[in-house]
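Model it.
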Amino acid sequence: MDREEYVEAVLRAVESIPPGSVATYGDIAEYVGQGGPRQVGAIMREYGGGVPWWRVIRASGVAADEVGDEQLHNLRSDGVRVTNGRVDLREVRWDPDVDDD
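Modeled.
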């Protein structure tokens, strides 16, 4: 898949994450079937403004440094519980096999 196709695949995957759920950068890479967390992060920084970018979080459950406060605020607005600045991925991790319509 070329760069443009990869960008589109990543953005479509992020759009698929329902409110109240999150995915890690690695989850998105795995779902798309190419790249890794860093590549997904780069795409989100460059092109992610039009999708629910706040639903993609670090594997540690901690928000990205550059957008942390806004990301946590948006996640709370989505109904995601944030405790001490961290999301419990066991509770809210997106499962595309369950949530895919």
